[in-house]
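hiii so um. not sure if this is the right channel but i have a protein structure encoded as tokens and i wanna go backwards to a sequence. like what aa goes where. can anyone help
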């Protein structure tokens, strides 16, 4: 089993548990250059809010999108957009990525800005 297969296996287990809970989920994806976050409704069919390092407002503030500072900014933006969409509580779906580094920075920033998970 290679690195990608292991991550996808972890993500399937997490998504199955979140589906049982029937709550909105904060899904995070990262690449070497960027990080993306989406809030998906409980049914899994509609994106309620999204933020990433590809957005123009984020790109003008940060020169690189693949570091902890960028992840923290995306976490702050997704929390603000969630409040506007009326979402306060979510389940954190880290998409099989280990909870450290940029994933942890995004989660901490989202919690600090009022998102509960």
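sure thing!! here u go:
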């Amino acid at each position: 089993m290679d690195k990608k297969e292991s991550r996808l296996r972890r993500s399937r287990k997490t998504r199955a548990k979140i589906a049982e809970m029937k709550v909105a989920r904060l899904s995070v994806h990262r690449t070497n250059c960027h990080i993306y976050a989406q809030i998906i409704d409980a049914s899994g069919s509609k994106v309620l809010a999204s933020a990433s390092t590809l957005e123009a407002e984020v790109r003008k503030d940060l020169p690189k999108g693949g570091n902890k500072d960028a992840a923290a900014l995306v976490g702050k933006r997704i929390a603000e957009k969630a409040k506007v969409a009326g979402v306060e509580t979510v389940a954190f779906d880290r998409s099989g990525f280990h909870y450290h580094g940029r994933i942890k920075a995004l989660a901490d920033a989202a919690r600090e800005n009022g998102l509960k998970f």
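oh and Strands lie at 25-30, 35-40, 47-52, 91-93.
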